[in-house]
Design brief:
three-stranded antiparallel sheet, membrane, mainly alpha, 2% strand, transmembrane, transmembrane helix, 325 residues, DUF92_TMEM19
Amino acid sequence: MACSLPPLHAAVSTSPRLPSLRSSRSPSRPAPRTQPLSPSEPKVLRHCPPPPPRALPDIAAAGLRDALAESFLASPPTWRSSAASNLAIFVAGSPVLVSGLSASGIAAAYLLGTLTWRAFGIPGFLLVVAYFVVGTAVTKLKIKQKEAQGVAEKRGGRRGPGSVIGSSAAGCLCALLSIYNVGGTPLAALWKLGFVASFCTKLSDTVSSEIGKAFGRTTYLVTTFKVVPRGTEGAISVEGTLAGILASFFLTSIGYLLGQVDVKQSVLCILASQIANYGESYIGATLQDKEGFEWLNNDIVNVLNISIGATSAVLMQLFLMSWSS
């Protein structure tokens, strides 16, 4: 028996139709008015000055500053730090140096300054600076009058290397003895004393001579006390002698304040300077410009003068040390 299946009818579902959307047209707008473009003005090229030169970079400047500070504060000073510190001071003080020294004199003074700094540090260097400033000032004093009388220093008072060496030979020797520690610690104070005494002696000699030539009313020959013209070798005056004593007192006071000498040693420096100045005047009156002693010029006499001063101070100090022991 056949059974018949009912016919299958696929249900077809139709999707609902979407209503059609009318495209709404926006009302037309008039085109905006545009302003006519004005012709562009020609550009004017301005001349700009060139940029300033670039300064030293901060790092390099700071490095140079630190290097100089290290040289100044090096303790004990080395040859390198002494040369660098001295060079910086010479560059800064070049106007003063040029007024008192010739070019070769400045070179000799640089060597003296480096040696002094190496041996005695800043205090010793400042002592020499004080000597130079005062000595230059009195040399320039009434320079026109001295030139008219024929008793002024040559080159308008500017001293050359011979004068620098003649004024510092004994001090340089004391500095070398101190640097190389000759005699050890017991003699270190003696070399410093000799150094101070030599410059006290030379400043006293310079001041007494220049003040005597500028203001001395009457000058006497040291051997006979006869009246002689100003500028005569071996001549002294009351004004010059008193000024020389004050000059030695001034410089030894600087040495005391800088810790180079004590009170007793300061007195020895003043006494030694006057002994040396009398000896220098005696040599000038009896030997200088005499036959057979033409080689004995002012520079050599200056070396003898400061050597007598330094040696006298050291010997008196040794005598006091032996007497008190």
